[in-house]
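worker-3 :: picked GNAT family N-acetyltransferase
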Amino acid sequence: MQIRKASEEDIPAIIQLLKESLGESMIPKSENLWRWKHIHNPFGESPVLLAEEDQKLIGVRAFLRWDFIHSGKTYKACRAVDTATHPDYQGKGIFKTLTTQLIQEIHEQGIDFIYNTPNKQSTPGYLKMGWEKWGQLPLKLHFHLNSGKNTHPLDPLPWKDIEGLVSQIEDRDEVSDGTALKKGYLKWRYLDCPLFPYYYLSDFESYLLFYRIKEGKLGREIRICDFFKTRDLNPKEIEDLKAQLSEAQNLSGARFTSFSGLSFAKQKEINLGPIPILKAGPLVTLRQVNPDLNPFEISWNWSLGDLELF
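worker-3 :: tokens ->
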């Protein structure tokens, strides 16, 4: 078995392997999605390793680059995402071999830690390779028990209407804890994503809220992915935001709204009812890469937009 770095020329074969190994599942595999995620990411191209035997692709392992800010300092991270082993070669340790070697490579590149949100089936394997459970993401949930049809507009509002506000948010000298808002990040994340449409609420001057409509086990959901402000909102602006969110909830027919409990604790402008913050979100696991940084000692401010699967 040979292990080597992937190149753009390998993308068609990678997509074919992902389909053979995993099927389409909830997230359809495509070259467009792979390029958006692993090539055009504003935090940099993903480190990807391939396993081959007799010139046949039998394994792939990819980490998605991400930068976080905490207390004014930037931390380099990777998210453990796409991985697959050809069905004829499963059970031979290919996943572990690729993952272990890729961890060594990103350590040499100065990555501080790895994070991901594994499912119940994959969690034990990650724990055996040094990942540790951070815990479930706290969620603020607001149940409004709508049962109507989704009459929400299919197309998001024009991006050009918020380009000035997006630039202002990404160019701010005062940075908040959370994802490092590199130039072009918000467009990449919420306009260019090929998987689902994201919508926004805004007064085009002081606040910008991104959300999407998601079908799930509990019913239709308004998922607030990120909320940004250029300053503290006055009472009139808060009422305007409340009215826009209420309209979106009604049009969508969603049964509930969700928002990261880590973000909600610092963003009181969004009123989501009396239910306390619950540890009801995805399980987050972390793996130390930089021996001088323990990621469990940092109070992360993850949004749902940071941890969504795509």
